[in-house]
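Saturday, quiet lab. Running sequence design on the structure tokens for the scaffold JK sent over.
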């Protein structure tokens, strides 16, 4: 791993569907050199895979973030993102049928894990996705970096329509492609900042790849080259909000089984209603 490899990985955090051609331009490498490095990162297990994060609002559900001391682990179908942190915390993103259902699920977790250290349930409006968007997201769940032209052959939707809809879904924060990286091998730092005045932490715009904001409150997730750079960002955050919660990830994963099932259920209900 060198500085260029780290820049490649950070580019993928910011845009998991970025083309190798664009990365090559950004890091000033030839296409051949970039392709070699990209494949080597995968072969060496630095980049383990790519996954699609689907916002539960997209399939008509609500979501929350909650953290607990990591003395125990917790697994359940309603957990779609899990992040293990250096601060002896596990952060979970869960989904539910309603705000009350989210609260009930958090209570269920608390019975086994103890009181949550952080709970964030933003105001949100679940939607019912269109049939076209469902087909596109289902294909991206199978292959998050699939080319629109290849997807068009499978789902019989024009390539330009697929390109346009993917861009719209990303801009609405309905989906996001994320590389699953072995952080110990990559030697980069992924950290999250939860703040009640997150909109005032504009310095994080330079490093963020995920952001969940409701009014002034929110959670921002960043990827940077090393711990020294991370410390610099955290210091600037503390100067503005000394109560902000900072969490450094040691590993993370995304589960899409439920998202796929929910999308298939929406399709099946639509077919049944037509009949």
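Result came back. Writing it out in full:
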């Amino acid at each position: 791993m060198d500085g260029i490899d780290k820049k490649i990985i950070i580019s993928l955090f910011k845009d998991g569907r970025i083309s190798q051609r664009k990365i090559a331009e950004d890091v000033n490498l030839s296409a051949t050199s970039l392709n070699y490095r990209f494949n080597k990162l995968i072969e060496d297990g630095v980049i383990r895979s790519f996954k699609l994060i689907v916002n539960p609002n997209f399939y008509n559900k609500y979501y929350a973030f909650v953290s607990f001391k990591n003395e125990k682990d917790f697994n359940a179908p309603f957990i779609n993102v899990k992040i293990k942190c250096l601060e002896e915390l596990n952060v979970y993103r869960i989904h539910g049928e309603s705000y009350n259902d989210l609260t009930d699920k958090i209570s269920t977790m608390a019975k086994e894990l103890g009181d949550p250290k952080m709970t964030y349930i933003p105001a949100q409006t679940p939607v019912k996705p269109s049939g076209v968007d469902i087909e596109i997201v289902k294909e991206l769940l199978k292959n998050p970096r699939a080319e629109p032209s290849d997807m068009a052959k499978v789902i019989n939707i024009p390539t330009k329509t697929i390109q346009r809809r993917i861009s719209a879904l990303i801009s609405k924060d309905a989906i996001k492609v994320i590389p699953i990286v072995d952080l110990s091998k990559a030697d980069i730092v992924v950290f999250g900042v939860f703040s009640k005045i997150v909109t005032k932490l504009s310095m994080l715009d330079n490093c963020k790849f995920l952001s969940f904001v409701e009014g002034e409150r929110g959670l921002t997730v960043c990827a940077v080259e090393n711990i020294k750079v991370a410390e610099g960002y955290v210091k600037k955050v503390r100067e503005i909000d000394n109560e902000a919660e900072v969490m450094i990830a040691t590993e993370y994963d995304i589960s899409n089984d439920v998202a796929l099932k929910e999308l298939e259920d929406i399709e099946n209900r639509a077919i049944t209603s037509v009949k």
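Notes for JK: The two ends are 57 Å apart (CA to CA). The beta strands are 47-54, 62-69, 79-85, 89-96, 118-120, 175-181, 189-195, 208-214, 217-224, 245-254. Ask whether to fix the surface positions before the next round.
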